[in-house]
C-alpha cells in the first residue's frame, strides 16, 4: 500500500523542453511530497519559469512525463504538438506570474468569481461570499469593487493570489511574483504567501529574495542550464552549498551569506 | 468679386437640413452594419482556419486597396446589371459604404485583438477557463474596449467620405450644397457653410476620441 503522507504529490521524470533549437530543460527528475514548499533559484535563463509554465500546463514538452497526486498529468507525445495534458488535473494547480495578469476590464470581485462560476458552475452568491472572505483575509476588504488599474502592484499580486485560491488548488506555483514590485510593496505579498505556507499549502516558488527563500522553503532547488544542479534543505543549498556552481551563484546574487 | 451675401443660406436652410439628415442617416446605418461586419471579419482574420483567413484577407485588402469612389460607381452601375434588378440610390450607397466601413473597421478590431498580451491567455489557462469563456468573458470585452477610440475615428472618416455619394447623384449634404452653389452662383458662401457643417459635427467627435482613448488606456493598463 502507498503511504498517503509520503506518496508524491508531483512526480516529474525525464522532463525535456526546447524552444526550437534551444534546449531549455534537459531531463528534469523531481518528486515533491505533499506539504513541501520548493524554492527554485538559479541564474537568468536557467529554465525556472519554463519549469513552472510546464507544470501549469502552459507549454508543450519534448520528452518525459509528470504525474500529479498519482494521476498521469502531462505526457510527451511523438512531437511537442502531441503533448497530452489532462485538463481536469490542471485545474487543481494554481499559478501567479511575475507580470500582472488580472483581467483589467473586470473589478476585483469579478476577477475572483469568474473562474469559480464558469468552471465549476458555482452560484454567484456563494462565490461572492467566499471571495469577500478571502479579500478580507488578505487585507483587501475595501477593494472588492476597485478595478486593477486602481490598485498598487502589491495589491494586484495579492488579488492574483486570491483569484487562484478561489479554485481550491492542491498546488500553487509562484514565478517571481514580487520582482515587478517597488521594494516597499514586496513584504505585503510575501506575508500572504507565508500565511499560505502556515496552512501547509504545497507550493513551488521562484524567487531572488534570500530572506523570503529562507523563510518559506522546506527544500531548495538550484536550477541552471536546464538541469537541477543541487537539491536539498535550505540550510544546505542556501547556507552551505555542496556544488561549486551553487556556491558561485549564491555569492554573486545573494551578496551576503549569513 | 460681388460682396458676400450669406442670406442665401437662410433661403435654402431647409434643403441643407434635409441633405444633412440624409448624410447622417446614411452614415449611421453604415456605421452599425459596417462595425458588425468588421467585427466578424476581424475575428476571421485572426482565426486558425486558413480559408476564413484567406477570404477575409482578400476582402479587406481589396476594399482598402481601391478608391472609395470606384467602389461606389461599381455598386451603383455594375451591381444592378449583375443582379438584373434596380437598386435605389440609397440602397446602393448603403451597400458600398458598409462594405468599405467593414473593411476599415475589421483592421481596427484585428489590431485590438492582437494587442491583448500573452499574459491574459496564460491567466485564462491557469484558471482553467474553457475556450468559450476565455473568448467571451476575457478576450472580446477587452478587444472591443481597446477598439473604441479607433472605431470612433473610423466613424468620423466615414462621415466625411460619405460626401462622395453626391458623385452618383445621392441628395446628401454635399450634393445639395453644390447644387445650391451652382444655382445661386454663390459658391463662397454656400460651400463654406457646407464645410463648416461637416466640421462642426466632426470636430467635437475628434476631440472626444482623444479623451476617450486616454480613459480607456488608463483603465486597461495592467
Ligand atoms: N516563448 C519562448 N520562446 C523562445 N525562447 C524562450 C521562450 N521562453 C523562454 N525562452 C528561453 O528559454 C530560456 C529559459 O527561460 P526561462 O524564462 O525559463 O528562464 P528563467 O530561469 O525563468 O530566467 P529569469 O530568471 O530571467 O526569469 C531562456 O534562454 C529564454 O530566452
Ligand atoms: Mg523567469
UniProtKB/TrEMBL annotation, chain A:
Transmembrane segments: none annotated. GO terms for cellular component: plasma membrane. GO terms for molecular function: ABC-type amino acid transporter activity; ATP binding; ATP hydrolysis activity. Residues 10-250 form the ABC transporter domain. Keywords: Amino-acid transport, ATP-binding, Cell membrane, Membrane, Nucleotide-binding, Transport. Gene3D superfamilies: P-loop containing nucleotide triphosphate hydrolases. It is found in: Cell membrane. It is a peripheral membrane protein. Its main location: membrane. InterPro entries: AAA+_ATPase, ABC_ATPase_HisP-typ, ABC_transporter-like_ATP-bd, ABC_transporter-like_CS, MetN_ABC_transporter-like, P-loop_NTPase. PROSITE patterns: ABC_TRANSPORTER_1, ABC_TRANSPORTER_2. Belongs to the ABC transporter superfamily. This is Polar amino acid transport system ATP-binding protein. It comes from Mesorhizobium muleiense.
From TrEMBL, chain B:
GO terms for cellular component: ATP-binding cassette (ABC) transporter complex. GO terms for biological process: amino acid transport. Signal peptide: none annotated. One of its GO terms (molecular function) is transmembrane transporter activity. InterPro entries: AA_ABC_transptr_permease_3TM, ArtM/GltK/GlnP/TcyL/YhdX-like, MetI-like, MetI-like_sf. The chain crosses the membrane at residues 20-41, 62-83, 89-109, 190-212. It is found in: Cell inner membrane; Cell membrane. Residues 20-209 form the ABC transmembrane type-1 domain. Keywords: Amino-acid transport, Cell membrane, Membrane, Transmembrane, Transmembrane helix, Transport. It is a multi-pass membrane protein. PROSITE patterns: ABC_TM1. Part of the ABC transporter complex GltIJKL involved in glutamate and aspartate uptake. Probably responsible for the translocation of the substrate across the membrane. The complex is composed of two ATP-binding proteins (GltL), two transmembrane proteins (GltJ and GltK) and a solute-binding protein (GltI). PANTHER family: L-CYSTINE TRANSPORT SYSTEM PERMEASE PROTEIN TCYL (PTHR30614:SF0), MEMBRANE COMPONENT OF AMINO ACID ABC TRANSPORTER (PTHR30614). Belongs to the binding-protein-dependent transport system permease family. HisMQ subfamily. This is Glutamate/aspartate import permease protein GltK. The lineage of its organism: Bacteria, Pseudomonadati, Pseudomonadota, Alphaproteobacteria, Hyphomicrobiales.
Amino acid at each position: 500500500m502507498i503511504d498517503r503522507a509520503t506518496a508524491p504529490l508531483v512526480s516529474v521524470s525525464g522532463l525535456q523542453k526546447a524552444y526550437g533549437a534551444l534546449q531549455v530543460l534537459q531531463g528534469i527528475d523531481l518528486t515533491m511530497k505533499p506539504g513541501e514548499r520548493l524554492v527554485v533559484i538559479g541564474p537568468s535563463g536557467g529554465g525556472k519559469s519554463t519549469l513552472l509554465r510546464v507544470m501549469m500546463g502552459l507549454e508543450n514538452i519534448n520528452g518525459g512525463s509528470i504525474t500529479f497526486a498519482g494521476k498521469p498529468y502531462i505526457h510527451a507525445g511523438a512531437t511537442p504538438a502531441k503533448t497530452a495534458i489532462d485538463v481536469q488535473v490542471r485545474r487543481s494547480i494554481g499559478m501567479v506570474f511575475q507580470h500582472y495578469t488580472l483581467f483589467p476590464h473586470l473589478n476585483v470581485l469579478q476577477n475572483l468569481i469568474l473562474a469559480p462560476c464558469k468552471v465549476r458552475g458555482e452560484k454567484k452568491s456563494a462565490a461572492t461570499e467566499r471571495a469577500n472572505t478571502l479579500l478580507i483575509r488578505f487585507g483587501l476588504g475595501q477593494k472588492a469593487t476597485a478595478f486593477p488599474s486602481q490598485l498598487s502592484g502589491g495589491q494586484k499580486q495579492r488579488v492574483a493570489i486570491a483569484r487562484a485560491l478561489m479554485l481550491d488548488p492542491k498546488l500553487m506555483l509562484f514565478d517571481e511574483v514580487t520582482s515587478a514590485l517597488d521594494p516597499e510593496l514586496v513584504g505585503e505579498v510575501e506575508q500572504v504567501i507565508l500565511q499560505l505556507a502556515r496552512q501547509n499549502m504545497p507550493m513551488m516558488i521562484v524567487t531572488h529574495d534570500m530572506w523570503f527563500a529562507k523563510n518559506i522553503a522546506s527544500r531548495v532547488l538550484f536550477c541552471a542550464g536546464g538541469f537541477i544542479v543541487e537539491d536539498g534543505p535550505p540550510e544546505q543549498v542556501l547556507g552551505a552549498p555542496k556544488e561549486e556552481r551553487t556556491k558561485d551563484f549564491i555569492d554573486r546574487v545573494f551578496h551576503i551569506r549569513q | 468679386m460681388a460682396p458676400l451675401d450669406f442670406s442665401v443660406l437662410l433661403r435654402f436652410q431647409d434643403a441643407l437640413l434635409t441633405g444633412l439628415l440624409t448624410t447622417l442617416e446614411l452614415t449611421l446605418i453604415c456605421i452599425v452594419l459596417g462595425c458588425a461586419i468588421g467585427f466578424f471579419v476581424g475575428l476571421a482574420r485572426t482565426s486558425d482556419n486558413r480559408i476564413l483567413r484567406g477570404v477575409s484577407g482578400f476582402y479587406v485588402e481589396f476594399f482598402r486597396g481601391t478608391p472609395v469612389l470606384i467602389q461606389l460607381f461599381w455598386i451603383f452601375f455594375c451591381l444592378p446589371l449583375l443582379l438584373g434588378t434596380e437598386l435605389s440610390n440609397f440602397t446602393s450607397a448603403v451597400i458600398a459604404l458598409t462594405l468599405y466601413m467593414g473593411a476599415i473597421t475589421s483592421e481596427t478590431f484585428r489590431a485590438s485583438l492582437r494587442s491583448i498580451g500573452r499574459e491574459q491567455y496564460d491567466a485564462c489557462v491557469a484558471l482553467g477557463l474553457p475556450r468559450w469563456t476565455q473568448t467571451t468573458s476575457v478576450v472580446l470585452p477587452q478587444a472591443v474596449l481597446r477598439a473604441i477610440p479607433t472605431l470612433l475615428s473610423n466613424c468620423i472618416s466615414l462621415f466625411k467620405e460619405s460626401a462622395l455619394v453626391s458623385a452618383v447623384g445621392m441628395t446628401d449634404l454635399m450634393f445639395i450644397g453644390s447644387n445650391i452653389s451652382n444655382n445661386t452662383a454663390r459658391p463662397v458662401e454656400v460651400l463654406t457653410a457646407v464645410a463648416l457643417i461637416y466640421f462642426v459635427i466632426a470636430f467635437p467627435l475628434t476631440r472626444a476620441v482623444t479623451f476617450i482613448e486616454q480613459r480607456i488606456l488608463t483603465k486597461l493598463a495592467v
